[in-house]
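Quick illustration, no need to memorize.
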Amino acid sequence: MDSSSQQIACSHDFFDRLPDEIVRLIFNQLRDAKSLCSSMSVCKRFRDIAPQVDDIFLPIPRKKSVVRESDHEIRRYSLKDLVIRALAKPFHIITQAMKSKSKGEEKDLDFYSHSIPNEILKSFGEIRALHLRLPCHENQKQSSKRSKKSTTFLKWKAEFGRELESCVILGAKSWKEKAAEDLGEESSRVMGEDELKLRIVWTISCLIAASARHYLIEETVKGLKTIENVVVSDESGQGRVCMRKEQIVEMRESKDEHRSRVPALRMKMWYLERLELTGSGKVMEGATLVVIRPAAAEVSGSDGDMVAEAFGDGNHEVGEAATKLMVAKKCYVLEMNSF
């Protein structure tokens, strides 16, 4: 290529030759709200096309907070201390956790649900799918620094319409690599009273987190007229709140409430004292699977379908654990009042 041809090539922006539809598809694959907003300042054409994106991923930045003396008091407790206290006085711990969490979340929810998503998303007028990722709470951030010592495992998925429709929880007291000298076998002993109390604490904690996230997105979702799918996750990847089109419509038609209501629930709980995952070579101690539905609702779909949808997203370790737990001999049925 001679110098004159090089000059001609450099003088033309071949990206400008792409049709608007192709550029929109490229932006749709980008998804990240921050990057899309930045692209709007590149040129007038991008400013016109980027707002047409219909699939948005919005990670919420962590809110800066002032550390109080009471926070230092909380951090003095190790995970072992908290578990022991939860076992000794489970309902006292739950009550205190709900009170302290609600005070902190009241401020956080106001910040997250109003200041951040609404301000950013108002630039996009055709959103059909929205994924919000929340930052870890300060307590979660501190516990992540101790992750090498603490191997407690907990994952969950909840679906909401006007109120909770379903929730699936997978947990274990420990999740670790199987040692070479470890010759233990899978055990399905009857769950002890202390073990049951601990799993009730896990369940209530997950339900509170799910309800708070549903309340968080209510105003944002009602303001997005074209939205059909919503996912609210967190930095740690622990839990997800999901809403489909019909569930979003149901939420829009409901009357405004102070918080998202959790109805009376019926729970099925599968438990194995020890569970080996042959695919990954890991061992779960106190492995537990919980499937939760509203007590008054008609059963639609099998428990297996709910579990597969919740944990069949490519994580083979989690999928294997959930599948093995569902065929465990021991299955406990519990009921919980609304709150």
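The chain has a mean pLDDT of 79.
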